[in-house]
Design goal:
mainly beta, four-stranded antiparallel sheet, 0% helix, 43% strand
Length: 69
């Protein structure tokens, strides 16, 4: 993977609950710090955004819906 990635977790209203910095190739996250902890059963959206290295041009995004455990 040559893309830089960024993750964003949002509640149903679109409020950002957690966001990472750029994750470069070869890096990984063990945990993500939430500013507001979701409650069990709360619906969440995780947006994964990709960027071209060095230029920060978007190369796309994907949105995943999930439920907090």
């Amino acid at each position: 993977n040559n893309a830089w990635l960024k993750l964003r977790f949002m509640d149903e209203k679109g409020n950002i609950l957690a966001e990472t910095g750029l994750i470069k190739p070869g890096e990984y996250l063990k945990t993500v710090q939430f500013t507001t902890a979701p409650t069990s059963g709360q619906k969440l959206t995780m947006k994964i955004m990709g960027y071209e290295p060095e230029t920060y041009h978007s190369i796309g995004a994907v949105v995943l819906n999930t439920v907090a455990g």
